[in-house]
């Protein structure tokens, strides 16, 4: 029942790394069938490999085999930046290959570095191949965030508050940054800031998409229908009998697109079904599948409606017969079967096999459950409380695998890797409140490990899987509830998303890299209305901000402000009202002079209030200065400072303090007490008149430093004599140190000195340019710097301008110098103008090349010329052109002649503005063509002869000359009348051209002799008789002839060897270029080759072999004939033939009798081979003397070996079964007998023992088995 998309899986790689099994194609295995054609996959990326975030990138994979496009199969696009294999965790999308051998994916990528690779999955015909990985760098972009103050609470005193603040943004990676509480009433004063480095995931509230345009929405499919790289979706309504397309803007909003007709639809799939690279839509109707082919712009056209059977309820897509073309598998709810529809690659489908199911099969998925490289199927049987697994063999056939028993009636199922073992697992939802998790074993069987319950708030209809929290483990959505997986197949409830619909589709609909949810929801009661809801995943931070101190009395509007991070944009909340409190202040007091003064001195007090400013708030009011209880005076507070000067302090100690009265925003405060001691000494009075102004660059001297007093002492000046001061008002200071320090205090004084600016003369530098050009950049020089200064002390530049324009004639123009942006701290300026000289422009006039025919008079005119470097669109009226070649008698031999230009006049140009250069051209005199009034006649030739054999006669021309064939060596290709080129060559070849025309030449046929020869072996069928031709000319072969001659003979298959006649007559033979003479040929019948090979034989050494006359093979007999007997002889057939002489030749000869006639054959006799093998032998113990024997005494044992046809050689070993296992060995003599001596050891018990003997064997005999036992008595 779930929608599936096999075209574009995700909208960003950040989401791709987090989705786990959104499509069952995650577990598609590459085809593993052998003997496949190798392929090559290449990858192109546009618009480039360095882009900004949310840029739509186009990834184009091209698949070829032997240089030709591969037009079927699928390509996986993967981000290999943090992956080893192109598989589930790195998969961006899986795209069907188009008819042109391409697969295209258009998506944005998340910020960061990526390494993109395209992998062709292969088919039963074509092998797997992968492109090289290409790096793509995506610069970060800002994701919108939202900041909200959830609640605020006052502490009840001092303007103190706490606030609960929430910030939402991109879900991955975790949000970071800082949160500040800003007082908007007080110039956004920052009351407090908190930094954070982590966030949790959540979802936006459900938002409806589409409204009443949908009707009763039930099932959805996701894909990029208009090719803009942004995810769209289609939703179908069973009640409304339609499908509605919605086009996404990549930011989470949708607009209504195409409306498609349907018939009680139960499911929908988006995939490229006709291999054109555009996403199509398949709608599962009651008894058909409606195939709508996409136009790539969000519109569709109905292609076909293949029948599925009765009540198609669920369907899935995959390549079930491994031909690289998408197929469908449909569950038929009433017929209780799974029906295959096999794709033809053009958007049409044909019925495949059907397979039995349980009762009421519904949802169905596909994956490679047993890892054999072929796609399998899994589906639920609602009425049986089971799920079934069908195992595919890659040819479109399936066999029943495992059957899963369930405790509730199942509805939907999904595929995912829930325990991270690389094997597809199943999640199966029940009709109410939950789902069961089954882990795959990799062989098509499953084991239940856990269940999840949605409670009473949600049903279990819709299911989907993805890695929602980016921990590398597959999570699960069931009935609007998100469950987080732990990587072992177990899940915990995390979040109620909402939207308890019949289906769930996942995609990144707003481009932030997080998996978002599309859920159709409708009422189960009439009128069954509903909507499609969108819920966007987001990052979330919740912060308790405390304490917040609101400074300043009254009500303040406070907002929360988020700073943003590398991915998330800054945002701020709406304002909340908080009541502030007065600001605490601190007052400090300083005195000048500090703590002590002389009687009569002026003492200055400075009160400094802190803080001096809080946002836009400034402390204002009065500061009161007191000496104990006595008020010395008051002063207004200005920028946090208040001053008071007094000369009334008496000799002794004074306790001074300052007090700030406060205002509405700032509290009152009093400074600590400062003790000032006044001594009874006299401070001299300094007399210092204001100096006369000086000019910058003049050093200070006694003229300015001339302070005086009536008391003896010394003066110290600041700055000192010799100092050069900057221009402007400068302060000169002096300190007087009295000689009598007991009576007098030191004294100081200041005066103001005005330093005037020095003058710099700015002179515009002279410049030059040609007429018509733009003015050059003007420059200036400077004079008058003092004090070692250079142009580096200047700021800006003077204005340098001229009235001359591009059309100004040659002459001299003023360059006016003025201030412009020029400035200097210590200088003023005077200006001197410069001069711009406009000079003549170099103009080139070139005569045009011309031509005429010999004997003509040419008028040159005045306009056949070109010019370069004319300015301002000016023109030249005419130029005088002269040439000696213009006359009638100018010959070709003197060509080319110079055309000389001069005296340009007229037009709009002015001669005085240009320096003119004239360039000559060439006048070419071409040859004239004579007139031929009569062309000569040509004599006849024979086919194969060249035109040089034809004689030309007659011919008349307007000038003297000769006639000849243009190509005298040419051989006409066809007998008959041929038109050939004849050329007239004038006697005056210098001034006249050659002239050519065609004349007819008669070509007679050439004679050709026709004969034939043939050869065959006796008994063979006659070969096809072929003619031979003699005297072809002109490189011809029999291909130049039509038809064939009649060739006849009396020879048959049974004709005996000899030479016979082939009669040659005309038959159908004809030719355009040849006449024929017929000569009879000969047919030779040769003896047939016959090989007679003696059969290979084998015999045992010592036996005689009868050779006979029939053990042979005859190869090459004809007409079913036979050979009755062959004489066979071999030196190895007698009994004396040894193994050592083997093998022996079997020589055949004298073939005879049977049905063959030896005169018809050339016989070749081939020897056979006779192999002599070792014979078996028998050992017999013949005697034991004496018997009995005594222990420790010897006795003799006799033995023989048979057969003795070839006398055996070697030894016989005899073993007795006494306790010592006594043995002896003897050698065979020429009669095949022998003896050996055996001595039982002393102490051998007095018993009867058994002896056995074994022969060692030789080249002619095999070793014998142990002989029959012979008893021997030991006493």
From TrEMBL:
GO terms for biological process: integrin-mediated signaling pathway. Residues 760-837, 843-924, 1008-1084 form the MBG domain. It comes from the Bacteria. It holds the Pfam family FG-GAP_3. InterPro entries: Big_3_5, FG-GAP, Ig-like_fold, Integrin_alpha_N, MBG_2. Residues 48-139, 595-679, 1184-1267 form the Bacterial Ig-like domain. This is Integrin-like protein. It comes from Koribacter versatilis (strain Ellin345).
């Amino acid at each position: 029942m779930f929608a599936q998309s096999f075209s574009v899986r995700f909208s960003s790689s950040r989401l791709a790394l987090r989705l786990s099994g959104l499509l069952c194609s995650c577990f598609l295995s590459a085809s593993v069938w052998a003997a496949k054609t190798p392929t090559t996959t290449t990858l192109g990326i546009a618009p480039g490999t360095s882009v900004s975030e949310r840029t739509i990138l186009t990834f184009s994979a091209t698949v070829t085999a032997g240089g030709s496009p591969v037009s079927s199969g699928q390509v996986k696009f993967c981000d290999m930046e943090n992956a080893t294999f192109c598989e589930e965790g790195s998969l961006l999308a899986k795209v069907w290959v188009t008819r042109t051998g391409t697969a295209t994916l258009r998506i944005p990528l998340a910020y960061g570095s990526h390494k993109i690779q395209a992998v062709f999955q292969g088919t039963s015909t074509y092998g797997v191949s992968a492109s090289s990985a290409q790096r793509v760098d995506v610069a970060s972009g800002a994701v919108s965030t939202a900041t909200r103050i959830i609640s605020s609470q006052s502490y009840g005193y001092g303007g103190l508050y706490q606030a609960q603040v929430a910030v939402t943004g991109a879900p991955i990676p975790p949000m970071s940054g800082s949160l500040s509480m800003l007082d908007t009433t007080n110039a956004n004063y920052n009351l407090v800031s908190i930094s954070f480095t982590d966030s949790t995931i959540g979802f936006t509230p459900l938002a409806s998409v589409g409204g009443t345009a949908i009707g009763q929405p039930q099932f959805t499919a996701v894909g990029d229908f208009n090719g803009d790289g942004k995810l769209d979706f289609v939703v179908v309504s069973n009640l409304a009998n339609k499908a509605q397309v919605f086009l996404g803007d990549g930011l989470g909003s949708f607009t209504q697109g195409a409306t498609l007709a349907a018939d009680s639809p139960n499911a929908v799939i988006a995939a490229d079904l006709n291999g054109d690279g555009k996403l199509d839509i398949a709608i599962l109707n009651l008894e058909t599948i409606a195939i709508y082919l996409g136009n790539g712009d969000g519109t569709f056209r109905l292609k076909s409606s293949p029948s599925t059977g009765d009540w198609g309820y669920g369907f899935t897509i995959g390549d079930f017969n491994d031909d690289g073309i998408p197929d469908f598998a449909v569950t038929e709810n009433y017929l209780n079967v799974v029906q295959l529809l096999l794709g033809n690659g053009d958007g049409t489908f044909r019925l495949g096999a059907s397979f039995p199911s349980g009762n009421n099969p519904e949802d169905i998925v596909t994956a490679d459950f047993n890892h054999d490289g072929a796609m399998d199927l899994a589906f639920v049987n609602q009425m049986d409380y089971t799920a079934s697994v069908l195992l595919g063999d890659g040819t479109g056939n399936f066999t029943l695998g495992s059957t899963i028993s369930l405790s509730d009636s199942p509805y939907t199922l999904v595929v995912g890797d829930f325990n991270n073992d690389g094997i597809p697992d199943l999640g199966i939802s029940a009709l109410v409140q939950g789902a069961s998790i089954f882990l795959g074993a990799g062989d098509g069987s499953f084991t239940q490990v856990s269940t999840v319950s949605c409670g009473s708030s949600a049903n279990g209809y819709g299911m989907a899987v993805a890695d929602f929290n980016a921990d590398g483990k597959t999570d699960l959505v069931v009935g609007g509830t998100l469950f987080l997986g732990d990587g072992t197949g177990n899940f915990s409830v995390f979040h109620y998303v909402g939207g308890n619909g019949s289906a769930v589709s996942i995609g990144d609909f707003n481009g932030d890299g997080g998996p978002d949810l599309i859920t159709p929801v409708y009422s189960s009661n009439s009128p069954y209305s509903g909507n499609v809801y969108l819920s966007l995943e987001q990052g979330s931070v919740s912060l308790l901000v405390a304490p917040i101190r609101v400074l300043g009395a009254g009500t303040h509007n406070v907002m929360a402000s988020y700073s943003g991070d590398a991915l998330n944009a800054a945002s701020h909340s709406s304002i909340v009202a908080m009541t502030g409190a007065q600001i605490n202040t601190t007052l400090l007091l300083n005195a000048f002079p500090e703590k002590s003064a002389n009687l009569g001195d002026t003492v200055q007090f400075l009160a400094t209030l802190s803080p001096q400013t809080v946002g836009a708030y400034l402390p204002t009011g009065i500061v009161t200065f007191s000496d104990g209880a006595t008020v010395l005076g008051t002063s207004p507070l200005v920028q946090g400072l208040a001053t008071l000067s007094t000369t009334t302090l008496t000799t002794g100690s004074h306790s001074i303090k300052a007090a700030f009265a406060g205002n509405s925003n700032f509290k009152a405060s009093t400074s600590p007490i400062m003790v000032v001691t006044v001594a009874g000494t006299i401070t001299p009075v300094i007399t210092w008149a204001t100096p006369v102004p000086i000019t910058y660059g003049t050093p200070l001297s006694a003229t300015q430093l001339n302070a005086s007093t009536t008391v003896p002492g010394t003066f110290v000046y600041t700055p000192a004599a010799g100092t050069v001061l900057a221009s402007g008002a400068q302060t000169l200071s002096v300190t007087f140190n009295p000689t009598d320090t007991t009576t007098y205090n030191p004294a100081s004084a200041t005066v103001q000195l005005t330093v005037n600016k020095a003058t710099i003369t700015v002179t515009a530098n002279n410049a030059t340019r040609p007429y018509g050009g733009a003015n050059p950049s003007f420059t200036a020089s400077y004079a008058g710097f003092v004090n070692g200064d250079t142009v580096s002390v200047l700021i800006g530049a003077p204005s340098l301008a001229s009235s001359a324009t591009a059309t100004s004639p040659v002459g001299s123009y003023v360059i006016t110098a003025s201030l412009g942006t020029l400035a200097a701290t210590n200088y003023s300026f005077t200006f001197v103008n410069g001069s711009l000289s406009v000079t003549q422009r170099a103009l080139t006039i070139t005569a045009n090349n011309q031509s005429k025919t010999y004997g003509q008079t040419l008028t040159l005119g005045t306009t056949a010329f070109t010019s370069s470097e004319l300015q301002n669109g000016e023109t030249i009226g005419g130029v005088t052109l002269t040439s000696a070649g213009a006359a009638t008698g100018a010959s070709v031999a003197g060509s080319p002649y110079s055309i000389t230009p001069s005296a340009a006049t007229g037009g709009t140009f002015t001669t005085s503005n240009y320096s003119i250069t004239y360039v000559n051209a060439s006048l070419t005199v071409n040859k004239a063509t004579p007139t031929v009034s009569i062309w000569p006649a040509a004599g006849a030739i024979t086919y194969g002869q060249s035109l040089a054999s034809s004689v030309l006669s007659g011919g008349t021309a307007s000038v003297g000359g000769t006639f000849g064939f243009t190509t005298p060596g040419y051989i006409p290709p066809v007998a008959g009348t041929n038109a050939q080129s004849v050329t007239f060559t004038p006697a005056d070849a210098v001034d006249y051209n050659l002239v050519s025309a065609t004349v007819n030449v008669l070509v007679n046929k050439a004679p050709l002799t026709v004969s034939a020869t043939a050869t065959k072996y006796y008994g063979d069928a006659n070969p096809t008789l072929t003619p031979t031709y003699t005297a072809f000319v002109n490189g011809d072969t029999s291909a130049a002839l039509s038809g064939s001659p009649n060739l006849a003979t009396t020879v048959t298959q049974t004709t005996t060897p000899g030479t016979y006649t082939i009669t040659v007559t005309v038959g159908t033979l004809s030719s355009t270029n040849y006449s024929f003479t017929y000569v009879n040929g000969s047919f030779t019948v040769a003896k047939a080759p016959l090989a007679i090979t003696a059969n290979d034989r084998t015999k045992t050494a010592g036996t005689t072999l009868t050779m006979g006359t029939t053990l042979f093979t005859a190869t090459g007999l004809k007409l079913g004939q036979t050979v009755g007997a062959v004489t066979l002889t071999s030196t190895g057939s007698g009994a004396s033939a040894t193994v050592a002489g083997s093998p022996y030749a079997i020589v055949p000869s004298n073939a005879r009798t049977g049905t063959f006639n030896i005169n018809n054959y050339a016989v070749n006799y081939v020897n056979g081979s006779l192999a002599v093998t070792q014979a078996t032998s028998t050992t017999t113990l013949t005697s034991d003397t004496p018997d009995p024997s005594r222990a420790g005494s010897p006795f003799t044992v006799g033995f023989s070996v048979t057969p003795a046809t070839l006398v055996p050689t070697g030894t016989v070993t005899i073993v007795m079964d006494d306790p010592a296992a006594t043995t002896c060995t003897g050698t065979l003599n020429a009669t095949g007998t022998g003896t050996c001596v055996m001595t039982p050891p002393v102490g051998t018990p007095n018993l009867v023992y058994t002896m056995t003997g074994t022969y060692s064997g030789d080249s002619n005999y095999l070793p014998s088995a142990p002989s029959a036992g012979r008893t021997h008595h030991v006493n």
